[in-house]
Amino acid sequence: MLFDPARGPAFTVSFTEHEGVVVAHLSGELDLRSAPVLRDQLRPFWGRPGTRAMIIDMSELGFCDSIGLGELLSTMKRSQQAGMRFMLSEISDVVARVLSITGLRNAFETHASTAEALRQASSP
Fold first, then answer.
1. pLDDT for 44-70, tens place per residue?
2. pLDDT tens digits for 17-46?
3. N or C: which end of the chain has fewer CB within 10 A?
4. Measuring CA to CA, which residue among 31, 49, 40 is closest to residue 13?
5. 9 and 41 in contact (C-beta within 8 Å)?
6. What residue numbers bound the domain in which 22 lies?
7. How many domains does the chain have?
């Protein structure tokens, strides 16, 4: 992970695809600066034919503030409107705590591992 003392850890998004399931791998901090980056990176997948699920792999996400949570909620709504199942996987303890404090823990379908989320997304 890159680090700029003036800005903190760099935020990155990378993708893998598995038979109609898009996995977005997040790294760094999801906050005011990075939320628009996530939105722009995910935009091409909403409504793309053949994509039935989106998994957000949070294993390398070290922080998520209220702006980041809002973006995750918006991403979930956009995905659902596009007819796609939406899941979070490998949520760190820090992010899990924020979800619990805000009462959003049950708003998302979550999985302990990305592999488990992929299995669930692939089942009818």
1. 998 789 999 999 999 999 899 999 999
2. 999 999 999 999 999 999 999 999 999 998
3. C
4. 40
5. no
6. 10-122
7. 1
